[in-house]
Design goal:
It is a single chain. By secondary structure, the protein is an alpha/beta fold. It has a domain of about 180 residues: Rossmann fold (3-Layer(aba) Sandwich). The strands form 3 sheets. It has a 6-stranded mixed β-sheet with strand order 6-9-10-3-11-12, sandwiched between helices. Strands 2-1-4-5 form a 4-stranded antiparallel β-sheet. Strands 7-8 form a two-stranded antiparallel ribbon. Helix 3 runs parallel beside helix 6 and helix 6 runs parallel beside helix 7.
Length: about 260
C-alpha cells in the first residue's frame, strides 16, 4: 500500500574516506519513494563509494555530513539496521555464498528485515508471486547464491532480492556491468516492473545504455567526488553526445582533481 508521505533518502554535505583517502567531497542528494534517479560519472568519480557509504558498508568512513532516511540520521547504524529501515543495495559484484540456497537466503533476509518469523509456506507464496512477476524460474532459487551464475543471472538474482524484500529506497550499483544486451534488457524490464509509488530507485551507472531501457526522472553527474550537474533525462543524452570530458571542460574542472574510486 502506498504511503501518504513518501519515504525519503537525503544525503547532506557527505564527505567520506576509504583507507584514509578522501573520496567523497560534499554530496547533496534527495531520493523519494516513487522517483527514479540516475547517478552517472566516469570511473574514479566516487559513485560506488557513495552507495556503500549510504548503506553503511564497513571500511567506508563518513567524515562529515549526514545520511537521513525519513528524517532520521542513520549515519551511525549498521548495514543491517539500515536495511530494516527500508534501504537496499544491489552490488556491482554480487558475492557467492556456497552451500546456501537462494530460497533459504531470501527467507532469512526477509525475516530479519521484517522482524518476524514467517512460515516456509507463507514465504514461498510471497517469493513465488515475485518470481512470476519477474519471469524467474524455480530452478534458480534452488541453486546456491550466485555460485556458478552467469553475470545476467547474478543481476536478476539481485532484482529478485529487491522484489522479495520490498524496500522503500533501492540503490542499484552498476547493475548493467558485465551484461550482454539481452541480459541488460531482462534486468531493465524487471526494474521497470518493480518501479512505482512504493519504491524509490537510484541507478548508479557509468554508461548511458542502461537508461535506454529505464527512463529516470532525474539525472545527476558525479565527478571528483561531487555532484557537479543535475537535470532531467535529457542530461543523459547530453552526456552521450559530449562525453564526460566535454562536461568536465564546460564546467572548468581540473582533470588532476578526480578522486580515485576505491574498490573495497
Amino acid at each position: 500500500m502506498t504511503n501518504a508521505t513518501p519515504a525519503t533518502l537525503e544525503v547532506r554535505d557527505l564527505h567520506a574516506t576509504v583507507e584514509n583517502k578522501p573520496i567523497l567531497r560534499g554530496i547533496d542528494l534527495i531520493v523519494r519513494q516513487g522517483e527514479i534517479h540516475a547517478l552517472m560519472g566516469p570511473n574514479g568519480s566516487g559513485k560506488s563509494t557513495l552507495s556503500n557509504v549510504i548503506m553503511g558498508r564497513p571500511g567506508y568512513v563518513l567524515t562529515q555530513g549526514q545520511v537521513l532516511l525519513n528524517g532520521e540520521d542513520i549515519s551511525a547504524l549498521t548495514a543491517d539496521e539500515r536495511a530494516k529501515r527500508g534501504l537496499f543495495l544491489a552490488m556491482q559484484y554480487p558475492t557467492e555464498i556456497p552451500g546456501v540456497s537462494v530460497v533459504n537466503f531470501l527467507r532469512t533476509a526477509y525475516q530479519s528485515i521484517k522482524g518476524t518469523q514467517v512460515s516456509a509456506l507463507e514465504f514461498r507464496k510471497h517469493m513465488k508471486n515475485q518470481m512470476e512477476r519477474l519471469g524467474i524460474e524455480d530452478s534458480m532459487v534452488q541453486r546456491y547464491v550466485n555460485q556458478g551464475f552467469s553475470g545476467g543471472e547474478k543481476k536478476r538474482n539481485e532484482v529478485l532480492q529487491l522484489a522479495v524484500l520490498e524496500p522503500q529506497i533501492a540503490l542499484l550499483d552498476e547493475t548493467d556491468s558485465g551484461l550482454d544486451i539481452d541480459s541488460l534488457k531482462l534486468v531493465a524490464e524487471s526494474v521497470n516492473d518493480l518501479a512505482g509509488p512504493d519504491l524509490g530507485v537510484l541507478i548508479i551507472t557509468h554508461y548511458q545504455r542502461m537508461l535506454n531501457y529505464i527512463t529516470p526522472g532525474y539525472v545527476h553527474v558525479m565527478m571528483q567526488g561531487k555532484i557537479v550537474q543535475s537535470g532531467g533525462p535529457e542530461l543523459a543524452h547530453q552526456l552521450e553526445d559530449k562525453g564526460y570530458e566535454g562536461i568536465r571542460r564546460e564546467l572548468g574542472l581540473e582533470e588532476s582533481a578526480v578522486a580515485e574510486e576505491a574498490q573495497v
